[in-house]
Amino acid sequence: MEDEDGYMVLDKRGAAGSPGPLQDAVSWLVLERERPQGTVGCKITSLGGGCTSLELRKNLCPLQVDKGCKLCPMGWTLRGTKCYWISEGIELWNKSERDCGNRGAELLMPGDQDELDFLNEILHKPTRYFWIGLSVPSAGQGGTWLNGSRLDQSRFQLSPRAEGCGVLRANSIDAGNCSLGFQWICQKNATKL
After folding, report:
1. 134, exposed or middle or buried, with CB in 10 Å at 0-12, 13-18, 19+?
2. Do both 187 and 110 map to the same domain?
3. DSSP 8-state symbol, 151
4. Within a domain: residue 93?
5. What is the count of structural domains for the chain?
6. Domain match, 87 and 58 both
7. For the domain that residue 87 is a member of, what is the CATH number?
8. Of the N and C termini of the chain, which has fewer Cβ atoms inside 10 Å?
């Protein structure tokens, strides 16, 4: 079902007396979260029987049933296999990193310039600074991402004077004083159905 602007709207209502597809989807996600990794579960539901994950895909991603379905939490933005969350508030780098961890995510670690260009588009105000998951311990030494990998300077050029914690501004990466307050961007993998 589409709304007046052409966006997909989920029908939360089921047949009389049944919880409906959205309630089934939430119940299935809760059950799947408890299931050991690598196992798949099917159960009969009020959606008409069959495997819940297939029914869930049909209800949440009707146009992508054959391609799989990727979902992000509410308030996050999906691109490819990643979900992005952009803070409204201002914090120090270490508090920003902790906040992302509390969300089951990590500070942004972009893979390429296309990803930075995408973020630049959704930020709308590219003159602001945003904390990212990069550490530059001393000037001229390059940087290290939170996952332990080194910054590839052929992809992202740092100023030779860059030192501190990673920041994103416009569509470029630099380093700033870790004791300053900036907004931040969290990333996590999208949930595949």
Report:
1. buried
2. yes
3. P
4. yes
5. 2
6. no
7. 3.10.100.10
8. N
In angstroms, the CA 14 to CA 46 distance is 9
The whole domain housing 133 covers 77-192
| Distance (Å, whole) CA 142 – CA 161 | 10
Contacts of 191 (CB under 8 A, 6+ apart): 70, 71, 72
Position 2 in a domain: no
* Rounded-to-integer distance, Cα 107 and Cα 100, Å: 6
Question: What mean pLDDT comes out for the span 186-192?
Answer: 92
For the chain, the C-alpha Rg in angstroms (whole number) is 20
Per-chain mean pLDDT for the chain: 75
For residue 108, give the 3-state DSSP assignment: coil
pLDDT score at 45? 46
From 8, 36, 68, give the residue that closes a domain. Answer: 68
